[in-house]
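G., before I forget:
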Amino acid sequence: MPIVIIFALIVTVFLFAPVLIVVPMSFTTSQSYAFPPPGYWTGQYAKYFSDPTWYLPTINSFTIALGTAILTLALVIPAAYAVVRYRFKGRAFANMFLITPLLVPTIISAIAYYKYLSYPKLVGTHIGVILAHTCLATPVAMLIMAAALKGYDRNLERAAMMSGAGVLRTFFYVTFPVLRPGIVVAGLFAFLNSFDETVVSLFIAGRAASTLPKRMFESIQLDTDPVIAVVSTMLFLLVICMFLLQALLRRRQFHGS
Amino acid sequence: MTDYLEIKSIVKSFDGKINAVDGVDLSIAKGEFITLLGPSGSGKTTTLLMVAGFEHPTSGTIELTGRDLTKIPPYKRNVGMVFQNYALFPHMTVEKNVSFPLRMRKFNRSEIETRVRRILDLVALTDHAAKYPRQLSGGQQQRVALARGLVFDPDVLLLDEPLGALDKNLREQMQVEIKRIHREIGITMVYVTHDQTEAMTMSDRIAVFNKGKIEQIDVPLKVYREPTTRFVGEFVGDSNLFDGLVKGGAVDVTGIGAIRPPRADPKLEGRAVDVLVRPEWLRIVAPNDRVADGELTFEIVVDDTINYGDSILLFGKAQQRSVRVRAITSHAGIFARGAKVRVAIDPANVFLIAR
């Protein structure tokens, strides 16, 4: 038992170590990656919020991730429903087909999307990136939704119908609220997957739809700007906030008013 | 009694080859408690789902108070349903679960309040109105499901093995509870179960299903005492079924002897029959006991006994044929394995089933 605890501690330290470097570095007075920082100030933060080459990609990333999450859910909820609930010709194929983006190396997908999206002139647009990210997020979101639906008691829908709710009201009053945890997880996954995606974005985001990871990659490649530590710190804070929010929601769900 | 719910020769096939429900006819009177009893796969649940509207009959019709239900979707049928796993909405309180059918039917607020209060009172859950289903016991959850199924005054309440998930004591309590509710509000109930005790204790009539067909529909005692087929005799209650041959109004029970049942059907004359003798219809004859005229006595060798406290069940053999005898403990004495026991059959307690 103590060995397990020691092991857990080692893993935690290992995972947490970068944070211990990155957070102090975001407050550095240096203009490069010097560590430990020679002095501390908040100038790097001011720079991040005033430089459009940093804050515009951030806004792009949020817009694209949100669009990806919505589009992925709009595709995956009905698709998972069809595949889990109904027996139809080509069901096994449909199930497989929706998982295939997982099997292709991302770099291959990126080149393919670049070629494909150039025909309708969507390269370098938000919609183009959203479409590509949706393809990438669909397999896992699909697996999450299918698992949620499999655990969903069909008699709940029947009970709603016997209570006089038609197909739509059954979905909104019963199916959706009961499946909400699964939907939230699938949507969150699609959001984070898109927010974090670099390879495809490098190919198709261009300048107008440039995303934060793309900008970070360029920053690392071209200069040694400590602003990247600011971005990392804020992403870290974002993740902590999301985690707390989710824990809070769960607590409310389980304890009820 | 006028026919209220009328199921007319419905057939349901899922694959186009085998009929899960194979020509079922059933007339149910208003206010009746009818049980569809049968083993799993006998078509009883499929029949219920067709009344609910979740399965569509391949052919045949279902009429409720004269209107054809088959083309009406489930949410417009005005039929209530209670499921085996309760199927309560986990994200709604007891009160919200119960008011759901009323809200879907656009009842006004004060009407909803009155009805919910009345029905929660009926199922004795008033104190739990604000709780979530997961905070309730299995029995309480099933009472919520009952309340939800009843609150909108449906024309019929369908119950699909509603007590299957409960333990034995709770099941018996709920049987009494459901019967009480049936009595108090006089609603027509169609109850599906594979538990023959449940069917016996609760129903006005029992429809025994086997392989997609109804083998017998009758009041419980009749189904028990006078089953029309061998299947019914075996499925409902404990039974001894002997081979017999009817000759001159008497039946020659193979390996045991001849007996003359007073109400033997003349149509059975000269035919081979199954002779049904319930274990409790057999009487253990003590050495000094008198045997009445017309009684058939024979000897069995005891294989085993089960002591239930109030009664014993004795497993024995007569001429290689298994025989079960149920006797009240005080009359039974102790029977060791291998002991020889004389038993008697009263001719009134013999029922002949045509083959």
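The domain at 48-225 of chain A is CATH 1.10.3720.10 (MetI-like fold). DSSP finds eleven helices and no strands in chain A.

More on Monday.
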